[in-house]
Amino acid sequence: MATSAIFKYANDISMNRSANSARSVTTGGYARTHRLGPSVMSFEADLPLLTEEQFREVENELFSIDDGIKFLNVNISSNNGNNIMQSTPVPLKAGETNIKLIAYSYSTTREITLTNLLPNTTDIFKVGDFLQFESFHKLYQIAKPLGSTDSIFTSSSTGTCKVRLSTPLLSSVGLPLTSVGSTDRYYIVSGQDDVYQDGTMTIKLANGNTALDSKGNPLVINIPSTNQDAYQIVSYLESQIESASSTHILKTDGVIINLSVKAFPENDNVGYFEITWGLDYEGCSLEYTTPTGLDVVNYNPINLTGDEVATIITNGITIENAAGTYIAGDFINTLVDAPLLANTKRIQSVTTVGTTTTINFVTEQEGSINTLGNFSAADVARTETTHTNVPGTSNNALSTIGTFNISVDSVGAITSVNKYTPSKNVRVGDVITIDVADMDNNTAADFTFEIISITHNGITDFTSTNYTDKEIYKHLNDALSTSNKVLFELTNISPSSIYVSDVNIFMGPDVNMKLMLTNKPAVTIVPKDEDKNLYKYDTFKFAEVL
Fold first, then answer.
1. Which of 107, 233, 278, 545 would bridge 514 by S-S if both were Cys, CB 3.0 to 4.6 A apart?
2. Which helix (H) or strand (E) holds 434?
3. How confident is the model over 401-413, as pLDDT tens digits?
């Protein structure tokens, strides 16, 4: 760090930043102002009364620059306690010796990303701090990226920090190729006709901790309760990231820079979306939860089995050397490209011969009970009453039957049957039997009725599509299970492409400004006593040399 006697003793320093500009009128008649060159800094320094020794030190410096003909290279942060320049070294990541540059969006916003910084450091820079590229004289001050309002910078978990330059680059400083964060694909599921509280989307670091934004706050994104199904949740995120007018932290901090690829093949309740991470948040992941902890879903979270479809058969598939376990009633997805072309299937039967596992799918639509009918005949042995929470059984072994409220009239006829607890995976035509032991527990006949219509659960009819060699995703639970984690990362679509420049970045005490003395001030000699004088300079004026 180069020091200066002039600034060492200065007790009053002022700085001015200016740029040449011009005004013009567009063809549409609008006035505009445009920059003709970079911003140039100038300084004025006032010194107090100097002793004989201090005066000789300042004079010696003036002679060294030939009274302003030569230039002064100096870091003015070292002088008399002023903090115009940052005086303390910038903390670096372990093993690193220099700040480096990653290109970000310089061409449009003059924003660059600095790397090799000590991760998760609050107040690592302040607005107005100086930055200099190695082997270049020009100094740049830093500001917060567009959309940010506070005055301090916090480094990311990966040791990066995005800053905005105060003025355009004066010359090529070795900007690398534009770097891009990784793109990840997520599978998302949600309930159907569920009403729950606000959900939260949390940005997680690789170590499981919650990531922090540029102000040091946890990156926990509130998803309003009006956004309930998968399509609504993802569309809300997309609007915060992609909208040009968005002031959401996801956009202003560059947490996620793209969310444009998405698909919802199963009634908007299940689908996938792809996100591209900002460089400061590379390696993070998303987690979605609801405050109640449980989210009733008709479409289930899934897990990779590691198995691939070997062949397509009529209403089914075969697998060779299956790693996963498959049983009747399981739900699986056979996917071409994540859930974009997903057909969620329910297994009817499984057989294994040698190394070949054959899976046959349910071909009839299933769901929850909508309407009931075809009550069995009246029986005078039945008691006139209303039975509540009565269990039943079904002739469909793959279904799960809930309970019912059953009303009986004076002649033993069933007048109404209403659902008390839900049934799952039922089919039209299923016959439900109510054991007399669960009603009157007498000599009356068991009561039966049929399912007339259902609310389809969205599990699609099997269509013979080329799924060969495509990986199988197995649902973690059944079609109406509950889960508090409805977002699963499927795969990394493309890794990050990070290009770091060879040019070192100087900040803090490593910055030296090239200054030209534009006004050599007069000096007034003030007698102190018979042997010594005091000396008072007029104002020193300097201009930055580009």
1. 545
2. strand 431-434
3. 999 999 999 999 9
* Residues 6+ away with beta carbon under 8 Å from 81: none
CB-based contacts of 193: which residues, under 8 Å, 6+ apart?
A: none
Rounded CA separation 12/538 (Å) = 12
| CA 539/CA 304 separation, integer angstroms | 74
What does the pLDDT look like over 12-44, one tens digit per residue? 888 888 877 777 776 777 777 766 667 788 899
Q: pLDDT digits over 427-463, tens only?
A: 999 999 999 999 988 889 999 999 999 877 655 554 5
Q: How many CB atoms lie under 10 A from the CB of residue 453?
A: 12
Query: How many beta carbons lie within 10 A of that of residue 8, not counting itself?
Result: 17
State which amino acid sits at residue 12.
D
> What token pair was written down for 185?
């694909």
**CA dist., res. 522 & res. 62, Å (int):** 12
Is the CB of residue 185 less than 8 Å from the CB of residue 272?
yes
Other C-beta atoms within 10 Å of 363: how many? 13
State the virtual CA torsion across 308, 311, 312, 318 in degrees, nearest 10: -70
* Helix/strand/coil percentages in the chain, nearest 5: 10, 45, 45
Q: What is the C-alpha to C-alpha distance for residues 334 and 265, in angstroms, rounded to an integer?
A: 13
97 CB contacts (<8 Å, ≥6 apart)? Answer: none
Dihedral through CA 45, CA 128, CA 505, CA 135, nearest 10? -40
Q: How many CA atoms lie within 13 A of 515 on its CB side?
A: 30
| Strand duo 316-320 + 311-313: pairing | antiparallel
Lookup: tokens for 429? 């035509």
Q: How many CA within 13 A on the CB side of residue 55?
A: 16
The CA distance from 355 to 349, in Å, is: 17
CA atoms of 256 and 237, how far apart (whole Å): 10
What is d(CA 209, CA 221) in angstroms, rounded to the nearest whole number? 15
Report strand pairing: 12-18 vs 31-35.
unpaired
